[in-house]
Design goal:
With 301 residues, this protein is an all-alpha fold. The chain has two domains: 2-48; 62-300, Orthogonal Bundle (MetI-like fold). It is built from twelve helices and two strands; from the N terminus they run H-H-E-E-H-H-H-H-H-H-H-H-H-H.
C-alpha cells in the first residue's frame, strides 16, 4: 500500500513537471512571436516616419539604393504574385490529383513506393531547386521561347511549384484518407461509381484539409527566398510577363540583409516595412482560409 502511494506521488510530480514544461514552451512561443511582431512594427513605424504609406503602397518604382530613392512597393508585390501564381498553377492541381490517386485509386504497394518519393522531394533544400531552375528549367524555356531572360519569374515559379507540390499532396492525401469508409460505401450502395464518390463525397468531406494544404503551400511560396533569389533575378519590374527578371518581397529582404544598407537609414528600415507587408499578406491568407472553411462547414451542416 505504501509503495502504491509512493508511485502515485511520484507520478503526480512527474505529471506536474511535464505540464509546467509544456506550459513554459507555449509561453515562450507566444513571447517569441510577440517579439518578432513588435520588432517589425517599431521599425516599420520608423520607415513610415520618412515615407508615406500611400506612396509606399501605390508607387511603381522601387530604387532604395539610388541617389534619388523611390519606395513604391508595387513592383515587389507584382514579382511575388507572378512567381506565386506560376507555382500555384503547377503545385495545386498536381498535388491534389496525386493525393486523389494515392488515397482512392493506388494499390497499397504503389502507395508505399510513391509516398517516400514525395517525401524526398519535400526534403530537398530550396537552394538546390534554385540552381535546378537556373541550370535546367531556364535553358529549356529559352529553347522553347527564345526571348526568355536568364533570370525570370517562370523558371522560379516552376521550380517552386515542384517544391511545394509534395506539401499539397501529403496534406490533401491525409485529409482524403480520413474520410469515413462508411460514407464511401453508402455512395457505392446508391449506385455511384468511383469518380462520383470522389467528387461527391471524398472531396467535400475533406474540403477543410484540402483548403488548408492550399493555403500552407501558397504561403510557403510567398515566403520562399532562395529559389527567387537565385533564379528570378533582382530587378524590380511592374510586369505580368513571367519571362523577364523580377524581384520579390523575400528576395529584396535577402538583398537588404546582405549589408548594403547602413543601419538607421530609410533604406534599412524599408527592410522591415517589406517584412511587415509580407507578414500581413500571409496572415490575411490564413484568415481567409479559416473563413472559407467555416462557411463550408456551416453550409454542410
Amino acid at each position: 500500500m505504501v509503495s502504491t502511494n509512493q508511485n502515485m506521488i511520484r507520478q503526480n510530480r512527474l505529471n506536474l513537471v511535464v505540464r509546467n514544461l509544456l506550459l513554459a514552451c507555449a509561453v515562450l512561443t507566444v513571447f517569441i512571436t510577440a517579439g518578432i511582431i513588435l520588432s517589425l512594427v517599431l521599425n516599420t513605424f520608423s520607415f513610415f516616419g520618412e515615407v508615406s504609406v500611400w506612396s509606399f503602397l501605390t508607387g511603381t518604382e522601387w530604387t532604395p539604393l539610388f541617389a534619388n530613392p523611390q519606395y513604391g512597393v508595387l513592383p515587389l508585390i507584382a514579382g511575388t504574385l507572378l512567381v506565386t501564381v506560376c507555382a500555384a498553377l503547377i503545385a495545386l492541381p498536381l498535388g491534389l490529383f496525386s493525393a486523389i490517386y494515392l488515397s482512392e485509386y493506388a494499390h497499397p504497394t504503389t502507395r508505399k513506393l510513391l509516398k517516400p518519393v514525395l517525401e524526398i522531394l519535400a526534403g530537398i533544400p530550396s537552394i538546390v531547386y534554385g540552381y535546378f531552375a537556373l541550370n535546367l528549367i531556364t535553358p529549356t524555356l529559352q529553347n522553347l521561347i527564345p526571348q526568355t531572360e536568364i533570370y525570370n519569374a517562370a523558371s522560379a515559379g516552376i521550380a517552386m511549384g515542384i517544391m511545394i507540390m509534395p506539401m499539397v499532396c501529403s496534406l490533401s492525401e491525409d485529409a482524403l484518407s480520413a474520410v469515413p469508409p462508411g460514407m464511401k460505401h453508402g455512395g457505392y450502395a446508391l449506385g455511384a461509381n468511383k469518380l462520383e464518390v470522389v467528387l461527391g463525397i471524398s472531396i467535400p468531406q475533406a474540403f477543410s484539409g484540402i483548403v488548408s494544404s492550399f493555403v500552407l503551400a501558397v504561403s510557403r511560396a510567398i515566403g520562399e527566398t532562395m529559389i527567387v533569389t537565385v533564379a528570378a533575378g533582382a530587378r524590380p519590374s511592374l510586369t505580368l510577363n513571367p519571362l523577364v527578371s523580377v524581384q520579390t518581397l523575400t528576395s529584396f529582404i535577402a538583398q537588404a540583409s546582405s549589408g548594403d544598407n547602413a543601419h538607421g537609414t530609410t533604406s534599412y528600415y524599408a527592410l522591415y516595412a517589406v517584412g511587415m507587408l509580407l507578414f500581413l499578406i500571409t496572415f490575411s491568407m490564413n484568415i481567409l482560409a479559416h473563413h472559407i472553411i467555416r462557411r463550408r462547414k456551416e453550409a454542410m451542416g
